[in-house]
Amino acid sequence: MIDKAKEILDGAKAKMGDSVKFLEEDLKTYRAGKANPLVFNNIMVDYYGTETPVPQVASVTTPDAKTILIQPWEKKMIPVIEKAIMDANIGLTPQNNGEHIRCAVPPLTEERRKELIKKVKTAGENAKIVIRNARRDAIDALKKAQKEGLPEDVQKDYEQNVQKETDAYVKKVDELCAAKEKDIMTV
């Protein structure tokens, strides 16, 4: 029965860890005033009838700190990518020269910084919700296992372990969000 409790704890840890990993990847896509090709990971274009992220249909590079260069593998994708960037409203204006698309990264305005910080806080809160849901599911599973024969003291110990893991992951989310906010506010 103790194996069952350990399995429940490990499952909760995995869900919490996945939530933090997802948040880390999501925060990388927020533009913080310097050229970052990852901002295009969430921008989708129609590629032969399939919604595809820009980096899968073009080479996305940063020749300098304030420029992003997008070189599509097929020239007919240039207007499609250009339109997708405009529709995404990420604060970049694409410039097309027939061969590739160049996006100059403007400095962030105070208003845009505040918008990004709101997005960071929302993403952090969503990650915390996933973590808390994993905690709730684990505690419910432990209570169910106790009814099926798991000793009560073992159940209580594992509930405390689940809570410790929850606190650790919530702290990690707070640290990630604080670091991203600091990065966004750095001029």
Automatic annotation (TrEMBL):
Transmembrane segments: none annotated. Keywords: Cytoplasm, Protein biosynthesis. GO terms for molecular function: ribosomal large subunit binding. InterPro entries: Ribosome_recyc_fac, Ribosome_recyc_fac_dom, RRF_sf. One of its GO terms (biological process) is translational termination. Residues 23-185 form the Ribosome recycling factor domain. Its main location: cytoplasm. SUPFAM superfamilies: Ribosome recycling factor, RRF. NCBIfam families: frr (TIGR00496). This is Ribosome-recycling factor. The lineage of its organism: Bacteria, Pseudomonadati, Bacteroidota, Bacteroidia, Bacteroidales. The gene is frr.
